[in-house]
Each structure stands twice: as C-alpha cells, then as structure tokens.
Design goal:
By secondary structure, this protein is α/β, with parallel strands linked by helices. Helices cover 47% and strands 22% of the residues. The two termini are 31 Å apart.
C-alpha cells in the first residue's frame, strides 16, 4: 500500500510486474472466486492470514495517511501479520510515529521499520524498483528448486526485501538469486523459518485440495 499520490508508470513496466505477480503469492486475493481459491492453495499462509494481511495493509495505510498526510511516501507490506514499512518521511520523529501507529493496527504481530528521512522517491526510481521486483520474481520462477509463490518481493530504492514462510535452504537460494539480479543494491531477508518436515506437510495438504 502506497501513501503517495497516484502517478503514471510506463505500461511496459506495469505489465511486467503484473505478469510476475500473477504467478506469485503476493497477487491480490480474489475472494469467493476461482482465482482466490487457487491462490489460497498456492500460498503457505492460511486463507485467514491472507485476508488479515490485506486488512492490515488497508487499515495501516489509511491511518498513516490521516496522521502524516500526503507528504509522506510510505509503503506498507504485511505478510503473515509481520508488517514492513519502507519509503520516506519528512522528519525523524515521523519514523517512530509511523511504527507506533502501525503496531496498534488490529492483528499486527510485529513491525519492521525501514523508513528514512528524505524527499519522496521519484517516478524514475519507483519505476526502476518495479522493474527490479519483476526481475526477481521472474528469476524465482525460473529456479526449478524453489516454489516462487512462497516468496513476497518488495523493492525500495534498489533494496530488495524478501518475505515468506520458507526453509533455511529456500531462504539461502532465494537470497542468492535476488543478489544476482541487475541493479539490486542489497537484499534484506524477513523470512519466517519452517522446517523441511513442515514444508513436506504443506505440500501434502496442498495436493489434497
């Protein structure tokens, strides 16, 4: 969720991002439809957690907008109730204030605050970030030893954030892949670790649906 005003992004970039997003767990959930059911089956979060994450993002974005106004550019990403804050704010005190606001949102379990003080990122920077996200997602899809839908990818100022419920093996492999994508300056891992045994159980449950 982005608090900044809507801006034009080249359609080629948007198309690439959407194409990759449709194959990933971070694509929007279509509640009550076939697409929604498919995504629930693919995602390692429960269906309830997925819906809670959507609600968290909406509530947090609205509360931040009310508190900090349009001058702040804050992206809110929730995965399994862990919230990532990225972007720019006008003052140092706004960084802590934003975290406190989000921490009070219903169902939030933890907040990772990576906000900085500075001018909102430019359209050029945001377009570049969108392209990087698309490339990372595509690279995860190409990797035959990973389930790309298990990962959520966020990019801010060339820094790639990886989220998901994954094994240590998957985490290391995904990090290696993301670091190899052109223009990625840094990779931040925000994974929830699961065992290989739990992964096998999840696979069995998905196959039974």
């Amino acid at each position: 969720m982005n608090l900044s005003s809507k801006r034009f992004v080249p359609m080629a970039v948007v198309a690439a991002a959407l194409a990759a997003g449709l194959l990933s767990a971070c694509a929007p959930l279509v509640v009550g439809g076939v697409a929604g059911g498919a995504l629930v089956a693919m995602d390692r979060r429960t269906s309830g957690a997925q819906l809670e994450d959507q609600g968290i993002e909406l509530r947090a974005a609205n509360r931040l907008k009310d508190a900090l106004g349009e001058g702040a550019h804050i992206s809110v990403t929730s995965y399994n109730r862990q919230v990532l804050l990225t972007g720019e704010v006008a003052r140092h005190e706004d960084i802590q204030r934003a975290e406190q606001i989000v921490a009070r949102v219903e169902n939030v379990s933890s907040v990772v605050n990576d906000l900085i003080v500075g001018m909102p990122s430019t359209l050029t920077q945001r377009s570049a970030d969108t392209l990087i996200t698309s490339k990372v997602k595509a690279s995860l899809i190409d990797a035959k030893d990973l389930h790309a839908n298990a990962f959520k990818v966020v990019t801010e100022r060339n820094v790639v954030y990886l989220m998901g419920r994954v094994t240590p093996r998957e985490a290391a492999r995904a990090t290696e892949i993301a670091r190899g994508v052109k223009d990625v300056a840094k990779v931040v891992r925000l994974f929830e670790s699961i065992s290989e045994e739990e992964l096998a159980r999840l696979g069995q449950q998905s196959g039974a649906r």
